[in-house]
Amino acid sequence: MKLSALIVQNYKCIGNTPCVVKIDNIVILIGQNNSGKSTVLDAYEAFASSGKELDEHDFHNGEVTLPVKITGVFSEITKEDEDVIGSKWKYTDEQFGECIKVRWVWTAPNKKGQKESYCPETNAFIPGGVGGWDSLIISRIPEAIRIRPTDPIEMTQTKILGILKDYVKEKLKENSESTKSALEAIRVLTDKICEDTETAFGDVSQKINDNISRVFPGASINIVTRSKNPLDEKVIAADSYISVGTKNNYTGPLLNQGSGLQRVLLWSALSVMAETNKSKKKTKVSSDLTKKILLIDEPEAFLHPPMVRSAREALYDFAENNENWQVIATTHSPIFIDVSKKHTTIVRVDIASESTQHYISTDDVTFNEDERTKLQMIRACNPVVNEFFFHDNIVLVEGPTEQLTVLHVAGELSLNVHVIDCKGKANIPLFVNILNHFKIPFIVIHDSDSPKIRKKTGLSKNPAWTINEKIRNAVQEGCFGSIYTQFPHFEGEFFDEELTSGKVDNILSVLSSKTGTEYDHIFDVYSKILKKVPEVLTDSLDCFDTKKNEYIARKGLGSNELWYE
Fold first, then answer.
1. Given this structure, which CATH class describes domain 151-289?
2. Between helices 428-438 and 463-478, what is the axis angle to 10°?
3. Is the pLDDT of residue 186 over 50?
4. Span 425-436, mean pLDDT?
């Protein structure tokens, strides 16, 4: 049994409309400032606290008459789980499938929350309920490790050391025969195990240093462990610390270093742990390692752009390759969003609307491996392509010509739109699929191309023509998008003489002039597209065919074999 979702009501900035967060290997919370992203992390900590007291400010708008409710949804229930808690609590939920629901309810400030369990027989939550709470359910709630940009330096150091603790414990268990022997003769072998512990920390320090030096040349770290009992559960004594050396021959505690180096150290530690565990193929969690969840606010804080991309890879790899760790992160950076990764959930948080419930799970979206590869390549070509998650009016285009045109016309009309260059017509359905999940309004602008193309061997079906139907079907599935189709392409629709090269330079020249019949024609059509004037759109097959036939008649292509379907 595992915690698979969290439902939050009347907690801090989240009101009575439930905010639903699916708990995956990695969860990325996005949204505008004050949208409730950090509140979700706070809610997880409150739920994991088993009813710890809340104060007045934790109640939505300070309204203490409305109870705070935080519900945990548990799935993957085994026969052994049922034997402990009883089968009467298990049921099939429309949204979550076979599950058990347990929640904490706070009815007043400075008072412990009350546990309630959902009873399928009564179709309601009842006080108490599920048995085995202390032993089973609590054990299925990952221990929270919270990291904030505003954390004091001492706290950041403690948390980094705590994250590395698991690495060292596993390292000792795998590589130190003396550790195993010490369990039988601890008095004799304590000194030797201490040496092994220091060796393990030296190993991880070297790997971290390799990462840090790429960002801060000449910088190095050393983990100074004070532990005299290496078999202690904590491995690291309370007075252990991280020492930092610089290229100026200065050596001192991490506490004296800047926020940038602290964050780089954090990502380096996560990266080392992920890399170390990749070869293990994510084996079952060791019984002596507690399930943990890393709650991190604004992972991009204090990092320059190249390091942000490295931090993203470290975060995803860490979650993927450490069975006993999960990650929930809030971010304002599109770079931290990667829908190509499996076991990833993107949640768009917006306390002002019902979009709090809008999320996409990469395991639920029907991306095949080829599509995931395409998404990775697009992100590599355009690292900020995922900015569309932060906007409400999206325009999808094939390439830079349409992108430049939309941006120019939208600017002239003072319209707030975000344009995505999909890097080719074939990739448009991928983005439509994602936008449909988030119920984000969008417009697609694409070329029709021709039904057939001429090759050396003769006429052949044009693969680009079949994509027209794929785009239309994808848009119609979600009911949030509109389509404008250019026949046969931008240059053919707006210019008498088709261009084979210099397309971008040409449109830049036309747009910058703001005069002439070509400019007027482009501006008029694209203005209507952005305003979603129905008569110019090609949302349906009938509209598409009407525009196709008009184009064929206007150009006198009735006998042109390229346009025979």
1. mainly alpha
2. 0
3. no
4. 89
- CA dist 554 → 82, 511, 547, 558 (Å): 71, 25, 10, 10
Is the pLDDT confidence value at 68 over 80? yes
Cα gap 109→212, rounded to integer Å: 45
- CATH 3.40.50.300 boundaries in the chain: 1-142+291-368
β-partners of residue 420 are 396
Q: Is the peptide bond preceding residue 306 cis, with omega within 30 degrees of 0?
A: no
Q: Cα(394)–Cα(385) distance, rounded to whole angstroms?
A: 12
Task: Classify burial at 383, counting beta carbons within 10 Å of its beta carbon; exposed 0-12, middle 13-18, buried 19 or more.
Answer: middle
Residue 183 pLDDT greater than 70, yes or no: no
Residue of 323, 360, 367 whose CA lies nearest to 344: 360
Neighbours of 550 (CB within 10 A): 11
Secondary-structure class of domain 1-142+291-368 per CATH: alpha beta
Q: Domain spanning 391-563: which CATH class is it, in words?
A: alpha beta
Q: How far is CA 105 from the centre of its chain?
A: 29
Pairing of strands 344-348, 220-224: unpaired
- Considering the chain, tell me which residue range(s) the CATH 1.20.1050 domain(s) occupy: 151-289
C-alpha–C-alpha distance, residues 333 and 338, integer Å? 11
Q: Which of 111, 11, 16 is nearest to 60 (CA)?
A: 11
Q: Is the pLDDT of residue 216 over 70?
A: no
Which residue type, as a one-letter code, is found at position 59? Answer: F
One-letter amino acid of 394 = I
With contact defined as beta carbons under 8 Å apart, do 54 and 46 qualify? yes
Higher pLDDT, 368 or 149: 149
Cα gap 428→563, rounded to integer Å: 23
pLDDT of residue 419: 93
d(CA 327, CA 273): 14
Q: What is the pTM of this model?
A: 0.72
Residue 363 has pLDDT above 80, yes or no: no
How much is the average pLDDT of 3-13? Answer: 92
User: What is the pLDDT, as a whole number, of residue 145?
Assistant: 86
Name 269's Cβ contacts closer than 8 Å, sequence gap at least 6: 160, 163, 164, 204, 208
SS (H, E, C) 263-295: HHHHHHHHHHHHHHHHCCCCCCCCCCCCCEEEE
Q: What's the whole-number mean pLDDT along residues 217-229?
A: 61
Q: Would you list the DSSP string of 514-551?
A: --SHHHHHHHHHHHHHHTT-GGG---SHHHHHHHHHHH
Between CA 273 and CA 321 the distance in angstroms is 8
Mean pLDDT (whole number) for 165-189: 53
Measured CA to CA in angstroms, residue 81 lies from 2, 86, 100, 210 at distances of: 10, 8, 11, 44
Of all residues in the chain, the percent with pLDDT exceeding 90 is 36
The answer to whether the CB of 376 falls within 8 A of the CB of 316 is no
Split at pLDDT 50, 70, 90, the class of 484 is very high
